[in-house]
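// run 5 | inverse folding | seed 20
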């Protein structure tokens, strides 16, 4: 089904409605109440930014996206000027409708853009490697219309709809011939660089394998060749056996602080039945996700009694390789180590990539388990 198709029925009673924005971008409404999405974008048409370029850091063979047009993007506007709130009589925003459940739209200032037909990633040739355009796709996922809320404030129904949007976008983006990796994620808090204080996340679809994916894939291949088993499955088995780092669990999901956590608070949430990506989750597993997702994010907020800044990242298998080796999991990391204190990535971490942890993962897991959840968890 094409991007401009008006309606698509998804799982869990979610209906997606596509609309075209004033500048030609696509906005997708994910609804559960049979809403009609007919309101047009009344803003003046603007030219979309041009596509940037990819440059190879030949010292480590890693691609860097050069996107100078992003310097002018919106930065921490007040609530009355938030572009992710619904449109009202005073402000025309990215969302033309007066309210919404979940929406996904093409980023206005993307780091990656769809390329011309025939695009391909060049062969690595050190400093002589050519500079291709920064092919890919960047999308914004708005979790709710309420400006002052967060993911942890959502209802289970809202989280289920967000999950369906992630699954839908993973499915469609994976069909693009230039996409190699689909990465849904959320930055929460100014401490991790958030530029819009509205409950939202993003999706980056890369035309290359990011460095962390390449490292995970290499480790998984080595483990498979040596043992005949899947690396992530063995890691999950260790967490279940050790038990001490488990933070939350239900019939279909397990949340734990990893054995070699790199951040003061780091939680991995994985389905008990391993899958390659979000599209492979069964309906039963999807329906069980909101409960554990809300418990985990609310435990994070409860550790110090203040909203916890974090990065929540969906790790999925690449689109075209390693799908039998890499497993879907949701990694949430926070740089906050105490009220008013952050873990800064200094010399060892930033320059050398060698992390040093000042607290044991078992300690942070214990702090997360000790959080007393209030009535907000009983939905």
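// decoded
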């Amino acid at each position: 089904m094409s991007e401009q198709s008006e309606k698509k029925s998804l799982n869990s009673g979610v209906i997606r409605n596509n609309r075209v924005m004033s500048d030609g971008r696509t906005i997708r409404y994910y609804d559960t109440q049979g809403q009609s999405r007919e309101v047009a974008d009344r803003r003046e048409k603007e030219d979309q930014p041009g596509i940037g370029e990819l440059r190879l850091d030949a010292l480590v063979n890693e691609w860097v996206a050069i996107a100078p047009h992003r310097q002018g993007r919106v930065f921490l506007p007040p609530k009355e000027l938030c572009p992710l709130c619904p449109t009202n009589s005073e402000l025309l925003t990215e969302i033309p409708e007066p309210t919404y459940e979940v929406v996904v739209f093409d980023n206005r200032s993307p780091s990656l853009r769809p390329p011309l037909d025939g695009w391909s990633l060049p062969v690595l040739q050190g400093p002589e490697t050519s500079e291709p355009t920064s092919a890919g796709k960047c999308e914004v996922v708005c979790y709710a219309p309420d400006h002052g809320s967060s993911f942890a404030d959502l209802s289970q129904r809202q989280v289920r709809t967000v999950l369906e949007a992630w699954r839908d976008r993973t499915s469609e983006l994976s069909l693009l011939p230039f996409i190699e990796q689909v990465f849904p994620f959320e930055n929460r808090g100014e401490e991790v660089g958030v530029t819009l204080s509205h409950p939202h996340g993003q999706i980056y679809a890369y035309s290359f394998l990011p460095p962390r994916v390449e490292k995970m894939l290499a480790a998984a291949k080595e483990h498979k060749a040596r043992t005949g088993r899947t690396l992530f499955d063995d890691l999950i088995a260790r967490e279940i056996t050790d038990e001490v780092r488990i933070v939350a669990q239900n019939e279909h999901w397990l949340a734990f602080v990893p054995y070699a956590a790199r951040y003061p608070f780091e939680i991995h949430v994985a389905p008990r039945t391993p899958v390659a990506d979000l599209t492979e989750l069964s309906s039963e597993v999807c329906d069980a996700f909101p409960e554990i997702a809300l418990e985990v994010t609310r435990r994070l907020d409860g550790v110090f009694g203040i909203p916890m800044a974090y990065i929540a990242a969906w790790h999925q298998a690449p689109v075209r390789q390693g799908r039998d080796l890499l497993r879907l999991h949701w990694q949430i990391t926070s740089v906050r180590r105490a009220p008013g204190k952050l873990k800064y990535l200094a010399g060892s971490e930033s320059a050398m990539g060698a992390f040093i942890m000042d607290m044991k993962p078992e300690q942070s897991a214990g702090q997360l388990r000790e959080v007393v959840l209030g009535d907000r968890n009983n939905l």
